[in-house]
């Protein structure tokens, strides 16, 4: 089975050299995906370009209704879609269904775009001249999606792009191509005209072709920091708008007044959920002052966690094993290797200057770091090369306020283990976690996927 493209409303086999696709749960092959090529990307962009005039002239409220219908179709087909995601990605069916629930929320949020697309009008800005500011779609938007949320994460971008009147070309992860294209047959049923939504499978060659294509107006990507930097540089050099979300190492700061059992439950759920393969997972527990009761509770929960889903690939497992080699390991996930690409949770003791804290580890590994004060904790957060998210657990409102104001990250959690904003609120990181000037979701997404036009008019009889 070869993962398909969707070009101009027609599903077709993906092109290019075969890339094997394996099931993380077993390590066995489940199919393949084409590596993609510039010619296929060109056909997809041409289809999107041809569909653009009709879609951009469709009233925004009608576009919103199509998004809502797609949300309903996702709900109606949740069983089949969840099974595809679970097979492709390895996550549990419960996690796959949760992904679909969030995807529906994002579609429903994007359907509110008509209220945010309103422009401005000033009468007699100069005597006899009226000024109007309008928002227009930017054109063809390219979306490069990651493996960890094959449907939801790309949808966060393309739902708003479509709501604003753009057409899109989506490039799913080559590691989860079937989950990434699972919505293909639902777009027409929801009411999207042919060519408004296109899917091109592939790897690096397909991404580079999208970055270089003269008819692509913007590129949105979620991936590693290295990939984000490369894509942002290439797309920007080609004169495109670009937003590239990169890696993360998200700290969770625990003050001494926080309940150790509550913190332990929050940080282990965050760090080990989906085997740590979430960009908002808390991967560093920062204890302010010695907190042996908290550390003991974390270790107990880690040892009791036995049902982690597999990681995405053998290379991902080997990367985790490499990090654990030579580290001060308190709980060793290598002792819990399971079928396929499964590995157990690990807890590692580290110091604030450990080089292990400056690279992304996209896996079920929690580092524990001690600092003496809240100021030291904030300094640690701000000294990270990443700036995606950070959380604090405390009963002290003044401490939480200080942390919220001074922590230099894009997303803050207060007594929240996963600092994920809701679908209506802008989302984005800082430093190596995000390259670009405009983030995703809500009003910021409308800013990214529209351009402003100023019209000055003198009316004469």
From TrEMBL:
<feature type="domain" description="Aldehyde dehydrogenase">
    <location>
        <begin position="16"/>
        <end position="455"/>
    </location>
</feature>
<protein>
    <submittedName>
        <fullName>Methylmalonate-semialdehyde dehydrogenase (Acylating)</fullName>
    </submittedName>
</protein>
<dbReference type="InterPro" id="IPR016162">
    <property type="entry name" value="Ald_DH_N"/>
</dbReference>
<dbReference type="InterPro" id="IPR010061">
    <property type="entry name" value="MeMal-semiAld_DH"/>
</dbReference>
<dbReference type="InterPro" id="IPR015590">
    <property type="entry name" value="Aldehyde_DH_dom"/>
</dbReference>
<dbReference type="Pfam" id="PF00171">
    <property type="entry name" value="Aldedh"/>
</dbReference>
<feature type="region of interest" description="Disordered">
    <location>
        <begin position="1"/>
        <end position="34"/>
    </location>
</feature>
<dbReference type="InterPro" id="IPR016161">
    <property type="entry name" value="Ald_DH/histidinol_DH"/>
</dbReference>
<dbReference type="InterPro" id="IPR016163">
    <property type="entry name" value="Ald_DH_C"/>
</dbReference>
<keyword id="KW-0560">Oxidoreductase</keyword>
């Amino acid at each position: 089975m070869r993962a398909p493209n969707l070009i101009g409303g027609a599903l077709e086999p993906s092109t290019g050299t075969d890339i094997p696709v394996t099931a993380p749960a077993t390590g066995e092959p489940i199919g393949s995906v084409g590596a993609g090529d510039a010619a296929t990307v060109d056909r997809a962009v041409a289809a999107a370009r041809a569909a653009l005039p009709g879609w951009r002239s469709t009233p925004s409220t009608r576009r919103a209704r199509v998004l809502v219908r797609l949300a309903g179709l996702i709900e109606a087909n949740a069983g089949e879609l969840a099974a595809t995601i679970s097979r492709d990605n390895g996550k549990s069916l419960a996690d796959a269904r949760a992904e679909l629930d969030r995807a529906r929320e994002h579609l429903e949020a994007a359907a509110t775009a008509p209220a945010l697309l309103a422009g401005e009008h000033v009468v007699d800005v100069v005597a006899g001249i009226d000024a109007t500011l309008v928002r227009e779609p930017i054109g063809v938007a390219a979306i490069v999606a990651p493996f960890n949320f094959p449907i939801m994460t790309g949808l966060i971008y393309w739902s708003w792009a479509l709501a604003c009147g753009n057409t899109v070309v989506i490039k799913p992860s080559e590691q989860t191509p079937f989950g990434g294209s699972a919505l293909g047959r639902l777009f027409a049923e929801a009411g999207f005209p042919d060519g408004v939504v296109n899917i091109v499978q592939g790897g690096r060659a397909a991404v580079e072709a999208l970055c270089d294509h003269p008819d692509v107006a913007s590129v949105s990507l979620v991936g590693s920091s290295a990939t984000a930097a490369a894509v942002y540089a290439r797309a920007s050099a080609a004169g495109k708008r670009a937003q590239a979300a990169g890696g993360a190492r998200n700290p969770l700061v625990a003050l001494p007044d926080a309940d150790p059992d509550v913190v332990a439950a929050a940080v282990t759920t965050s760090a080990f959920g989906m085997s740590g393969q979430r960009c908002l997972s808390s991967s560093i527990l920062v204890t302010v002052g010695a907190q042996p009761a908290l550390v003991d509770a974390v270790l107990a929960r880690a040892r009791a966690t036995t049902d982690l889903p597999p990681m995405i690939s053998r290379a991902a497992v080997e990367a985790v094993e490499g990090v654990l080699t030579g580290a001060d390991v308190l709980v060793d996930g290598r002792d819990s290797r399971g079928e396929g690409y499964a590995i157990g949770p690990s807890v590692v003791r580290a110091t604030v200057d450990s080089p292990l804290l400056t690279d992304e580890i996209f896996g079920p590994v929690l580092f524990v770091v001690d600092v003496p004060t809240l100021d030291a904790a904030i300094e640690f957060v701000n000294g990270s090369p990443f700036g995606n998210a950070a959380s604090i657990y405390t009963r002290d409102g003044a401490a939480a306020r200080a942390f919220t104001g001074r922590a230099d990250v894009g997303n803050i959690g207060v007594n929240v283990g996963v600092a994920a904003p809701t679908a209506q609120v802008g989302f984005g990181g800082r430093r190596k976690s995000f390259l670009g000037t405009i983030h995703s979701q809500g009003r910021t997404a409308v800013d990214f996927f529209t351009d402003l036009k100023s019209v000055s008019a003198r009316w004469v009889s």
